[in-house]
Amino acid sequence: MRLTAVGCSGSFPGPASPASCYLVQTQHDGRTWSLVLDLGNGALGALQRHLPVRAIDAVVISHLHADHCLDLCGLYVAQKYCPHCTAPHSRIPVHGPAATAARMASAYGLGEPEGMTGEFDFRTMTDREPFEVGPFTITPFRVNHPVEAFGVRVEADGKVLAYTGDTDTCDALLPLCRDADLVLADSAFVEGRDDASGIHLTGRRAARAAVDAGGVRRLMLTHLPPWNDPDVCRAQAAQVWPGEVELAAPDTSYQL
Q1: Is 154's pLDDT higher than 90?
Q2: In angstroms, rounded to a whole number, what is the distance separating the alpha carbons of residues 238 and 246?
Q3: Does the structure show a pLDDT above 90 at 111?
Q4: What is the pTM of this model?
Q5: In the prediction, which pLDDT does 86 show?
Q6: Sheet bearing 2-7, strands edge to edge
């Protein structure tokens, strides 16, 4: 299983990175399966450096803030209006919170109930109920954020990726992260600067969740807003995490 950080800027696109988007791929049955985790603003353009949009097997949306979902609008256009696509398109499965179809229709100014349903097969995620996309088993965990939000545990090839999405500390992080080969953790907040609760992790709190979960092999911080100093976030995580603290970098792939 391979992870590519397409966009890892927190809250809005930064000068060097789009907002949240991660491509997870593996080989199965003679082909590459491609799963997209979040499609935040600015991400669709960068994603096309790694695969054609019609090669996407499914999209998982962790929650409905713009920096995690808004480029579904662009993907809708690519699906619906591509003038060079000779074969009819198949609907891309989009797994997300209950209001995903309605929110995206509203974002593009489309009427319901049709909205984007001709291009996307919207499917509602439920806390701790796993589903499959080809060789991937994906388990959503409801996390601690002001809107309905999920972290997702992705399993394939005997490997486990745990993506926290946007969250503050919560009990769900323990089963989400337990024995993960890589934890991709929200680190938008900074200790001593951001004191609001129920929104984001700091590097230190992300590291504490990974340690408390047990069995985690790698910790990678992401969702850093452009105003954060990544080295400060990493140093705060290193106060708790016993190994190397990695920082997600846009257009960079990692083998699990």
Answers
A1: yes
A2: 10
A3: no
A4: 0.97
A5: 63
A6: 120-124, 92-96, 58-60, 31-37, 21-28, 2-7, 252-255
Rounded Cα distance, 130 and 21, in Å: 21
H or E element: which one contains 31? strand 31-37
Instruction: For residue 139, give both structure tokens.
Output: 């388990």
Where do the domains of the chain lie?
2-253
Phi and psi of 222, rounded to 5°? -150, -175
Domain boundaries 2-253, CATH class: alpha beta
Half-sphere exposure of 17 (CA within 13 A, CB side): 27
Closest CA to 158 of 181, 186, 142: 181
Helix (H, G, I), strand (E, B) or coil at 89: coil
Q: What is the mean pLDDT of residues 229-248?
A: 98
Per-residue DSSP letter, 54: G
Cis peptide before 113 (omega within 30 of 0): yes
Q: How far apart are CA 54 and CA 6, in angstroms?
A: 17
- Collapsing DSSP to helix, strand or coil, 156 comes out as strand
* For residue 4, pLDDT beyond 70: yes
Number of C-beta neighbours around residue 130 at 10 A: 11
DSSP 55: G
Alpha helices in the chain (DSSP H): 43-47, 66-69, 72-81, 100-108, 173-177, 203-213, 230-238
User: What are 94-110's pLDDT values in tens digits?
Assistant: 999 999 999 999 999 99
